Amino acid sequence: MQYVVVGHGTAGQTAAAVLKKVDPDSDVYVLEKGKYVSNHPCSLPAVVGGRLSLEALEKTAPKGRINIILEAEAYKIDTEKKEVYFNKEGSSDSLYYDKLILTTGLRPVFPRIEGMGLDGVGTVWDIDTVKRLLNMLGNKVAVVGGSATGIEVAAELAKTGREVILIEALEQLMPGKLDPPISSMIARTLTKMGVKVMLKTRMEKLEGSGGKLSYVVTNSGKIEADTAIVVIGAKPNSDLALRSGLVIGETGAVKVDEYLYTSDPNILAAGDVAEVRDFVTGHPTATGLASTAVVQGRIAAENVSGTNIKYKGALSPYIVPVGDYWFGGVGLSASKADKLGMDYLAFRFAGSDLPRYMPGRDTFITWLITDRRGKILGAQLFGRRGVRERILFLTAAIYAGFRVQDVRLMEFAYQPELCDLLDPITITAEGMSRKYRLL
Ligand SMILES: Cc1cc2nc3c(=O)[nH]c(=O)nc-3n(C[C@H](O)[C@H](O)[C@H](O)COP(=O)(O)OP(=O)(O)OC[C@H]3O[C@@H](n4cnc5c(N)ncnc54)[C@H](O)[C@@H]3O)c2cc1C
């Protein structure tokens, strides 16, 4: 068997490694258009904040007998001949495949406005964009886009003592993904860290002098800045699939079935470029998360080598640092439910993360979404400690179909230096069960 994986990001690396494990005698080729064996985008905000070196990321090459062809950009797949064509060093070449896994990810989008080419304007996307950014990073930084990356980068730069402004066009941070109880906590935390958070502020153009950025011009006025970091979103990198005749879904990502097969029986897609079903709503979604891409990469690899594993849908659990705090979520948000016209119950509990007598105790916010009968559909959390462990539990709870009436009676490991005796999840589940008479 000869497998070709296109793209060596999170899903591609996973797929290639799993292919070699489940089918050790196969030939596995990976075409990667970039020049790095590994990119690790999730660690880039820490590099921007100076806590991690780019060299550390560049050196983490995966091990294994996989033929990785770098700086090889696939531009067409001939699905009849089962050949993938790619450009490398100015000339074209091709590879035969028995099965191909497409993992071309997303690409960042930038506004078509005046001044985007000025020195001082950059983004945080991959090793090269961060290298460029680090070379021009000044002291007055405007982060444009209240996305997870925008929030993380703004907090990182504030910690270095720079003057940071975070600009978001809509009325809250991470609109559509986060609900107000959590997004307001993030805005408050950033503000306490010295970040000026400007909501309902749209960047209209960038002004400079001598080719260098001096102002970000917005609908709320001019902001003086020597650096603008534009992180306003990304879209599926599905051009190759489109050019090769594969069906593209309504999200712009490559449509796959529940086994991650595209419209071609020899091609699967995984990761950000794949349009899968949302676990909770069943609607088409393309997630933009490494946590999801790694699972899809594994399933795609196992399925091409003969297994039939159904992908159950994306729950999209995530966690993001903001200064000394963390926020995270999983599943359905109330804002998404509203948009889809779904019926739901929501409950917010603001408590603390440690017992009353413990030094260093801090606020912990739990926001839970259930259906009318108490079945957990989504959650968002904010706190200094214990966010990830609760996101892990809630992810499993949604998969398993747990109801808050059951969760309120579950036992959770306790130690006063780590948590309070009654866990915030227990209290939230209890409060919700009583408020909505679910008992
Ligand atoms: C700054 C930043 C921080 C993030 N932090 C987190 C986090 O903390 N947690 C989390 O879960 N997610 C995070 N993400 C998202 C996460 O990185 C992605 O969702 C994940 O990497 C998606 O994996 P993928 O394999 O689908 O795509 P990618 O990892 O983007 O890989 C796609 C690869 O395909 C290559 N490629 C594209 N087109 C071609 C072609 N035609 N030929 C050959 N190669 C091609 C690209 O060069 C790339 O290497 C972050 C993303 C960014 C940008």
Shape: globular
Main beta-sheet strand count, sense and barrel state = 5 strands, parallel
Give the distance, in angstroms, between the N- and C-terminal Cα atoms. Answer: 56 Å
Uncertain spans, ≥5 residues at pLDDT below 50? none
Q: What is the helix tally?
A: 12
| Average pLDDT level | 96
| Record field, number of beta strands | 26
Proportion of residues in β-strands = 25-35%
Q: Can you identify the CATH class of the largest domain? A: Alpha Beta
What class would the helix/strand composition place it in?
A: alpha/beta
Rg calc: 23 Å
**Ligand roster:** flavin-adenine dinucleotide
Give the total of domains.
3
CATH architecture of the largest domain: 3-Layer(bba) Sandwich
Structure description:
26% of the residues lie in helices and 29% in strands. It has 439 residues and is of the alpha/beta class. The protein folds into three domains: 2-34 and 71-106 and 235-304, FAD/NAD(P)-binding domain (3-Layer(bba) Sandwich); 110-232, FAD/NAD(P)-binding domain; 324-435, FAD/NAD-linked reductase, C-terminal dimerisation domain (Enolase-like, domain 1, 2-Layer Sandwich), CATH 3.30.390. It is globular. The model has no long low-confidence stretch (mean pLDDT 96). Bound molecules: flavin-adenine dinucleotide. The site of flavin-adenine dinucleotide has 36 residues, from helix 1, helix 2, strand 4 and helix 8.
